[in-house]
Write a structure and sequence with these properties.
binds adenosine-5'-triphosphate; Alpha-Beta Plaits; Rossmann fold; four-stranded antiparallel sheet; 309 residues
């Protein structure tokens, strides 16, 4: 869906981006994370064919940015981090204006705009003037605008920035929903925890270099070298003895009202543990993997890469 090879942009001696490699498939929700000035906007603008790289390649649905920019523009919806809305236009008029630019005609235009307002939960503001919207509502209107031509790829530059907590939650939910529609989405942020739990892939970029680009689940595996289980049973002492005798259990300790069981490094399938406990007559009232603190996980991963969040 989106592929870049050695994508590089230089301004004089400054590498805005340097050798960016990206490979995203249909349905991927890619969190593009990096501090201010890291190169996120530059990368997205190049993929959107709004900026030429110094060298390197980028493809959207196998179309090259050099040879087929028009095809790419049809496939891509790009929402910049800041965009103006016209002062004297109502929300619905604003959308219809862009729908017309996308050549959506006749009754289909109003229908499409209504549909988009519903998707972004902005129907109640349809007759408000666009410049009276809050930042969060403006961002949602921007999203409605880029969805009008039903692009397969969405490039969203910092859609969460400047939002209050409620608007942020709403936008994150909206992104999650869009992620389930099969579109390929790149969403950037300079705030690490904002994105990783809604994305299936993340890239971490700093000073133009992407130090990490991987599936979130893979990264988690790297950080978590062994599985830790929380096990709630009626008789801790007897259960501890049983668990300690299991070959895949490394250690058992007392947690807050339950047992904390650390497995050996090689253990992945631990289905035998509940089976054994139940087989011995224990009543299981809790059985789950310990949550990983994702933020510390990413901190650990980015340590030494120069990334500074
Ligand atoms: N037109 C330009 N001329 C010179 N330098 C530029 C230009 N555009 C961007 N840069 C530089 O390229 C680097 C990457 O900028 P870019 O806007 O891509 O970063 P970003 O990660 O999107 O940051 P932000 O979150 O602040 O938008 C920065 O050092 C920036 O100053």
């Amino acid at each position: 869906m989106i592929k870049t090879e050695n994508l590089t942009k230089k301004y004089g001696e400054l590498y805005a981006i340097n050798g960016i490699e990206m490979n995203l498939e249909q349905g991927d929700l890619f969190g593009f994370i990096g501090p201010n000035g890291a190169g996120k906007t530059t990368t997205m603008r190049i993929i959107a064919t709004l900026l030429e790289p110094s060298w390197g390649e980028a493809y959207v649905c196998n179309h090259s940015i050099y040879n087929e920019p028009r095809e790419i523009r049809r496939l891509v919806g790009y929402m910049p981090d800041f965009f103006g809305v016209y002062d004297d236009m109502k929300v619905i008029e604003y959308l219809e204006f862009f729908a017309a630019a996308y050549r959506i005609k006749g009754p289909a235009r109003r229908k499409k705009c209504n549909e988009m307002l519903e998707i972004v939960d902005l129907d109640f503001k349809r007759d408000a003037f666009a410049n009276t919207l809050s930042r969060g509502q403006t961002q949602r209107l921007g999203l409605a605008r880029v969805l009008l031509h039903d692009p397969q790829v969405l490039l969203l530059d910092e859609p969460l920035s400047g939002l209050d907590p409620r608007a942020r939650i709403e936008m994150r939910n909206l992104l999650r929903r869009l992620g389930q529609t099969g579109k390929t989405i790149i969403v950037s942020s300079h705030i690490l925890p904002e994105l990783y739990d809604i994305c299936n892939k993340v890239g971490i970029i700093d000073r133009g270099v992407m130090s990490i680009s991987a599936e979130v689940s893979e990264l988690m595996k790297q950080v978590r070298d062994r599985i830790v289980l929380h096990v709630g049973v009626d008789d801790h002492e007897r259960a501890s003895k049983l668990l300690e005798g299991n070959a895949i259990v490394d250690s058992v300790r007392q947690g807050d009202g339950h047992l904390v069981v650390t497995l050996v490094e090689s253990a992945e399938d631990y289905s035998e543990i509940p089976t054994a406990l139940i087989g011995e007559g224990f009543k299981l009232n809790l059985f789950c993997e310990e949550d990983i603190d994702l933020e510390s996980a990413f901190m650990a991963l980015t340590k030494g890469t120069g990334a500074n969040f």
